[in-house]
Amino acid sequence: MTVSPTARQLVEAAESLFTAGVMSHSGHANLSARLDSDRFLLTPGFVRGLRPTDLATVTLDGQLLEGELRSVSTEIIAMHSAVYRARPRVGAIIHTHSPAATAFAVAHRPLPCRTEPMLRFGQPEDVPVVPWGPRGSDVSVRGIASVLSQRPTTSAVLLANHGLLVFGPDSAATAHLVVAIEESAEAELAAAALGGAVDFPAGALADVQAAIARAAS
Ligand SMILES: [Zn+2]
């Protein structure tokens, strides 16, 4: 079996999350990478010790084309498909229970963009919260699609009472953004003990947003 660069990059991205220390104790995550308009690679239900040949190939409609998926992974196909459908330019998606970001998800608090890494690595706006719904359920998937349509430039959402969902052009960039978001959530929580985090100066977010819009056009 030949291993595609897309598969290799996805496995490297998964490893980088452990190396960066942004995983929860359980090591739970699922990652995917788009192959074309209708197919994507998906982690099989675990990410620790993942090899490229462990990845499954599925369609946006949830059909398993190649590989094996644990039943827990079958549930999350729809979560990934909702993002690929809403965002044709998205090439990779990562879901984690990164602890500090998950604290914001559990508190139903959007995560503000108040750190340099978040500003620079693709999320120059707050991370919105998607209302809770059981994992992979229609309620959850519709909630994700709804927030993505309301927030056309966000590259991440917090899943209420659950965790973090981040998406980007490829696996490496998406993993970088997961790390930037988790760092930002940690900094927000630490700054709360010092009286609270402070916003960027007026115009800082708008300048970066304008630069991103120019690059995308
Ligand atoms: Zn989860």
From TrEMBL:
> Class II aldolase/adducin N-terminal domain location, by residue?
8-189
Keywords annotated in UniProt = Lyase, Metal-binding
Q: Biological process (GO) annotations?
A: pentose catabolic process
| Signal peptide extent | none
Show the Pfam families listed in the entry. Aldolase_II
- What's the protein name? L-ribulose-5-phosphate 4-epimerase
Q: Does the keyword Manganese apply?
A: no
Cellular compartments per GO CC: cytosol
Presence of keyword Metal-binding = yes
Checking InterPro entries in the record gives: Aldolase_class_II_sugar_metab, Aldolase_II/adducin_N, Aldolase_II/adducin_N_sf
